[in-house]
Amino acid sequence: QVQLVESGGGLVQAGGSLRLSCAASGRTFSSYCMGWFRQVPGKEREFVAAINWSGGSTYYADSVKGRFTISRDNAKNTVYLQMNSVKPEDTAVYYCGAAGVWDSTAVVTISSYYYWGQGTQVTVSS
User: Fold this and answer.
1) What is the pLDDT of residues 50-87, one digit of tens each?
2) Which of 14, 45, 74, 87 measures 20 to 30 Å from 121, CA to CA?
3) DSSP-based three-state secondary structure for 116
4) What is the 3-state secondary structure (H, E, C) of 31-83?
């Protein structure tokens, strides 16, 4: 069982930066691939970024590539999402998830994730 708690959301102006954190409980954090997804009301949850077990491989949605960076610290059981040059369309609730597989098809798929956090709101003003 893994419990995930996101933090770091808030209000930021367009062009600014924000760093989200996702803290995991349990001793098995390093055995999971981690992903960030986001969701706006009335729309499906969409993939943002993912990172493999060691942190040596990452994968991004085209919409955030070059602006967002995912990283993890297995010693702290935490995964991060550094958001730079944010845009109003980045406004959403951001969720982190833990998955057991690593490939480009699996990590973008919601059903690949065993555990989810409660989400943190990010609002980008124009």
Assistant:
1) 999 999 999 999 999 999 999 999 999 999 999 999 99
2) 74
3) strand
4) HCEEEEEEECCCCCCEEEEEECCCCCCEEECCCCCCCEEEEEECCCCEEEEEE
